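call fold(seq) -> tokens
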Amino acid sequence: MPVLFIGHGAPPLVDFPDWVAALAAWAKALPRPRAILMVSAHWEGAPVTLGATRTVPLVYDFYNFPARYYQTKYPAPGAPELAARVRTLLSEAGERTVDDPSRGLDHGAYVPLLVMYPQADVPVLQISMPTLDPARLYELGRRLAPLRDEGVLIIGSGFITHNLGAGFGDTTPAWASEFDAWTAHTLTRRDDDTLIDFMKRAPAARMAHPRTEHFVPLLLSAGAADQGEVPTFPVDGFWFGNFSKRSVQFG
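ret:
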């Protein structure tokens, strides 16, 4: 299976037909996954925590949105077999895991899945990011990489640029376009060491990411990819000026 990084938008993503169409077309072009392993910017927890596996509720982790966004349903099947496999892979690498059977999919997980797999018929497991350290998340991706050969679609979900404090607009500021272009160039070169060191090496990194939780899921995805897999970018462009929609496919 490929490995993905998705610019996950926010609940209103579903109201942007072009973005919905691009994500839907991307999903149709992918091989059918046996299950999906999701790592979202919106769940941090150490050690690695495995979410719900029997039924998979949703976490409406946003505020002051119109009521209809809190009525969204995405009744995906749980993935207990995948959870067991994740536990095994990580324990073999010395990584401790815990379970949180009440923790469902947050909007970083279910919003893109809602348009990519609208039938909600693919089992989904979400796990937490145990750290924001890029090198450690890259290594976590390497440990999870064997799942690809078992039909599991590994997805990191975040944003290439994410600065809510910069506001929303119709034009893309230079700092956002420069950081986005640097990321695409670094990924295409598969210069993973430079990617890991993005806060020191990328232009306007602090402006693009005052806090890095939306970027570092990309490192987990890159870690799960083979070094020779040059990525493609099935979705790009900007949303509300400074939010890069760039999404990435390895393999």
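The two ends are 7 Å apart (CA to CA).
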